[in-house]
Specification:
Number of helices: 6
Shape: elongated
Number of strands: 5
Largest sheet: 5 strands, antiparallel
Strand content: 15-25%
Structural class: alpha+beta
Length: about 210
């Protein structure tokens, strides 16, 4: 079975998000180490489910402020050793491992994690097309017709990110189509994750 995934995303629309610092930030780094370890211990109780994502994410988000930098690796090892891990959380842990590998100057290791987990490394782009207001998106975002002139995108980063800088220029309110081909020899359930600052639409085999 061949699956053709068309991903539509708005580019050049950014939101600045401010994360709240946890209790203890601003105190000695050793206190932050204790706080992060407690977050992970809470997440591990009863196994790792999707409801534990926030605990894991906040614990690792402040890793650069740990007094002991090896704590990040120990926390990840603790989490991966859990006998019960939701598949989505397992993927998130691998994403964290890839991100940290890039930070530590091991991009090849991050790229291998991304490849092994079935990450899509080859994309095509179409557009951009001008859009006046976000309210116009629902009407304007239609499936591209056969014969559209797609262009190859340079590729993804070692951590799997596809950067839109340069694909939609000048920076203004507009929409950009991204497309990829995914081949599978059998029908199966997969998770598709999209990170969008505004709105988007996804087609799989021509269906929304």
């Amino acid at each position: 079975m061949t699956m053709h995934t068309k991903i539509l995303s708005l580019s050049c629309l950014f939101l600045l998000l401010c994360a709240s610092l946890p209790a203890g930030v601003g105190a000695p780094a050793a206190d932050l180490d204790t706080w992060a370890s407690a977050q992970v211990d809470r997440a591990l109780k009863g196994g790792l489910g999707v409801e534990d994502f926030a605990l894991i994410d906040t614990a690792l988000r402040y890793r650069r402020d740990f007094s002991d930098w090896s704590l990040t690796h120990r926390l990840l090892a603790q989490l991966e050793a859990s006998p019960k891990i939701d598949p989505l959380i397992r993927t998130e842990l691998l994403r964290w491992k890839a991100r940290i590998a890039v930070e530590e100057g091991r991009p090849d290791e991050a790229a291998e994690i991304f490849r092994r987990e079935g990450g899509v490394g080859r994309w095509w782009a179409l557009g951009p097309e001008k859009i006046e207001e976000l309210e116009s998106f629902d009407r304007a975002a239609t499936l591209p017709q056969a014969g559209a002139h797609w262009r190859a995108v340079p590729g993804t980063s070692a951590g799997g990110w596809l950067r839109l800088e340069g694909l939609a220029w000048p920076a203004r309110r507009q929409m950009l189509y991204l497309g990829c081909t995914i081949r599978s020899d059998r029908s199966r359930q997969v998770a598709i994750r999209l990170g969008l600052s505004q709105v988007g639409r996804l087609w799989l085999n021509g269906e929304v």
